[in-house]
Design brief:
FAD/NAD(P)-binding domain; 23 strands; binds NADPH dihydro-nicotinamide-adenine-dinucleotide phosphate; globular; single chain; 3 domains; about 30% helix; seven-stranded mixed beta sheet; six-stranded antiparallel beta sheet; alpha/beta; about 475 residues; Enolase-like, domain 1
Length: about 475
């Protein structure tokens, strides 16, 4: 029996759309199904709206600085509804762009949930069946709530972009990317933010010195950060729900959470407080349920991830998976690279494993944390190292009387002289680490950094002017 498609993609996010377009460009006949909005987590309820909110939240600081620089600037009120309307218009535009990209590539889009019936058969929710030579699972991930009575009263990150109004106070639970970014964003927008993190220091897995400085900066901007603390119990305080969740933004596969009113929270540190809202930023799980994968022999891991090999192939040879649903490195650019490697392997005759080494990333806190390679703690466990590190008050904010500091850090192998890790805490660290990552990925040594002329006056010039190690280990 013939095939309707050479490739059928389930999921219209960054990975799925890239794979569909590139496979179609090789002449393959490609179809795609998406059960929610096109663009996926990154475009609709992740990186893009988050970054726009980062920009929105940065203006009070900028205005305070402007005033110190002599401008007659004052921080006025923030109009959340006006901002939200504009934000959603932008997301609508981007979704249109994604639909247009598929259309332009000649890929029909099926706006339905899809599942697998056989190794080559996809069934849409409306009963339509397709036979495909290859099937790509690119269904991403979704926020997880802790297993706690009344946890449905709390928001997850998806809900933030649909809020009807800003809460006056919020408790953010978690210490990872989303918790720390949302804490800084909401604090910047004027919300009174409390953050509970169960461990000893936020941003587990990042360089200790860098995470320490971010935590210090977050506290300095008024975030009430409690480490070693979690929710013991939570429940409604009073009856009237005051902050309806924006249903338009709720993912189609999940009912919108209960609209929170004031929420009373008992903490493991003994305190009891009422918050206008609670946000769970306690991790994400792969969207693999309900796809019929296990029934046809696709292996699913402990956290719900689709298990794949280096070529993103599952245990069923016709089925591949890329992006967050595989829970490898859950970042948009990684999903895109995985998609491109999949197309090279399957449609271009060039078997291409995905290179997951030395992936740079940035946490968009205020200031940002940019990182690539090994942390000092990881490197110490592997070989003898030298640590080059400097922390200082940058010119721009120091001039305005701000005491905040930035950090530039290199972790260097004593044996090979290679820079094993680079960690930056500074405004625009995301931009800086992208460039440093090229050198680190190329295998640059400390001496390569040293013979690079500084760009003056900048913050990043410190990366090429640190002469003496602060520590050896
Ligand atoms: P993370 O895995 O980064 O953080 C989850 C946090 O929640 C951790 O601090 C974890 O603690 C804590 N936690 C987990 N379970 C519980 C629980 N039951 N009770 C209390 N705390 C709990 O997940 P995020 O949701 O922040 O982000 C998911 C992924 O999305 C990231 O890992 C990243 O890959 C990606 N992302 C990337 C961004 C970027 O590139 N800027 C931005 C946002 C997301 P513990 O440390 O103890 O495990």
């Amino acid at each position: 029996m013939g095939f309707d498609y050479d490739l059928f993609v389930i999921g219209g996010g960054s990975g799925g759309v890239r794979a569909a377009r590139m496979a179609a460009a090789t002449g393959a006949k490609v179809g795609l199904a998406e059960d929610s909005r096109m663009g996926g987590t990154c475009v609709i309820r992740g990186c893009v709206p988050k970054k726009i909110m980062v920009f929105a939240s940065s203006f009070p600081d900028a205005m305070r600085e402007a005033s110190a620089y002599g401008w007659g600037a004052e921080v006025g009120p923030f109009d959340w509804p006006a901002f939200r309307t504009r934000l959603h218009a932008e997301l609508d535009r981007l979704e249109g762009v994604y639909r247009g990209l598929l259309d332009g590539a000649g890929v029909p889009l099926h706006d339905h949930p899809a599942r697998l019936a056989l190794a080559h058969t996809v069934v849409l929710a409306d009963g339509t069946r397709f036979r495909a030579r290859h099937i790509l699972i690119a269904t991403g991930g979704a926020p997880d709530r802790p297993d706690l009575p009344n946890a449905r009263l709390g928001w997850v990150s998806d809900d933030i972009f649909g809020m009807e109004r800003l809460p006056e106070s919020i408790l953010i639970v978690g210490g990872g990317f989303i918790a720390c970014e949302m804490a800084c964003i909401l604090a910047g927008l004027g919300v009174k933010v409390t953050q509970f993190y169960r461990g000893a220091q936020i941003l587990r897995g990042f360089d200790d010195e860098a995470r320490g400085l971010v935590a210090e900066a977050m506290k300095a901007q008024g975030i009430d950060l409690h480490t070693g603390t979690n929710i013991l119990a939570m429940g409604p305080d009073g009856t009237a729900p005051t902050i309806p969740v924006g249903e338009a933004m709720a993912p189609a596969h999940e009912a919108p959470p209960g609209a929170p009113g004031p929420i009373r929270v008992k903490a493991t540190n003994g305190s009891e407080q009422v918050f206008d809202a609670v946000l769970f930023a306690t991790g994400r799980r792969p969207n693999s349920a309900g796809l019929g994968l296990e029934d046809i022999g696709v292996q699913i891991g402990r956290r719900g991830e689709v298990v794949v090999d280096d070529f993103s192939q599952t245990a069923v040879p016709s089925i591949f998976a890329v992006g967050d649903v595989t829970n490898r490195i859950n970042l948009t650019p990684v999903a895109i690279r995985e998609a491109m490697a999949f197309v090279a392997t399957v449609f271009e005759g060039r078997p291409t494993p995905v290179d997951h080494a030395l992936v740079a990333s940035a946490v968009f806190t205020r200031p940002e944390l940019g990182t690539v390679g090994l942390t000092e703690e990881e490197a110490r466990g592997q070989e003898e190292i030298e640590v080059y590190c400097t922390s200082f008050r940058p010119m721009r904010s120091a001039f305005a009387g701000d005491m905040s500091r930035v950090l530039m850090k290199l972790v260097v192998s004593r044996a090979t002289r290679r820079v094993l890790g680079c960690h930056i805490v500074a405004p625009e660290a995301g931009e800086m680490i992208q460039l440093a990552a090229i050198a680190v990925k190329m295998g640059a040594t400390k001496e390569d950094f040293d013979r690079t002329m500084a760009v003056h006056p900048t913050m990043a010039e410190e990366l090429v002017t640190m002469r003496k190690p602060v520590r050896t280990a």
